[in-house]
Amino acid sequence: LSLVLSLGATKDMGKMLGGDEEKDPDAAKKEEERQEALRQEEEERKAKYAKMEAEREVMRQGIRDKYGIKKKEEKEAEAQAALEANAEGSLTRPKKAIPPGCGEEEEEEEESILDTVIKYLPGPLQDMFKK
C-alpha cells in the first residue's frame, strides 16, 4: 500500500515541478471557449447595468419635472447662454450714462462700514480680515 502511494505521490510531484504533464489536445479550444464565455458575461453585465441606469434616469427626470429642478448640464448651458447674451447686448447697445461719483461713493461707504466692524472684533479676528 505504501509503495502505491509513494509512486502516485512522485508522479504528482513530477507534474507540479513541471515534469511530464499530460497534454490536452483540446486545451486551446477549451481556453478559447472560456474566454468567449467571460466576454459574453461581461457584455450581459454591462447591458444589465445600462438598462438599470436608464430606468433610474427616467425616474430622476420625472422628479426633476415634478419639482422644477434642472440638471447640472442644463444649468451650466443656461448660464453660458446668459453670459453670451449679456456680452452680445453690451456690444450692440450703447452704455447708459452713469452719473459721476455714484459707484465710487457706495464702495467707499461699504469699506468704511467694514472697517468699523473690524475695529470691534477681537485681535485674532482682526488679523484674519486684514490679510
Q: Tell me the span between the first and last alpha carbons.
A: 90 Å
**Backbone CA Rg:** 38 Å
What's the total count of β strands?
0
Main sheet, how many strands, which sense, barrel?
none
In what range is the share of β-strand residues?
under 5%
**What is the string of SSEs from the N terminus onward?**
HHHHH
Class inferred from helices and paired strands: mainly alpha
Indicate the low-confidence ranges by residue numbers: none
- State the helicity in percent bands: over 70%
What value does the average pLDDT take?
75
Total helical segments: 5
User: What is the oligomeric state here?
Assistant: single chain
The 3D shape can be described as elongated
Biased composition (Low complexity): 79-88
Family: Belongs to the complexin/synaphin family.
InterPro entries: Synaphin
Biased composition (Basic and acidic residues): 12-50
How would you portray this structure in words?
This is Complexin-1. Belongs to the complexin/synaphin family. The protein is an all-alpha fold. The chain has a domain at 26-85. 79% of the residues lie in helices and 0% in strands. The radius of gyration is 38 Å and the shape is elongated. The model has no long low-confidence stretch (mean pLDDT 75).
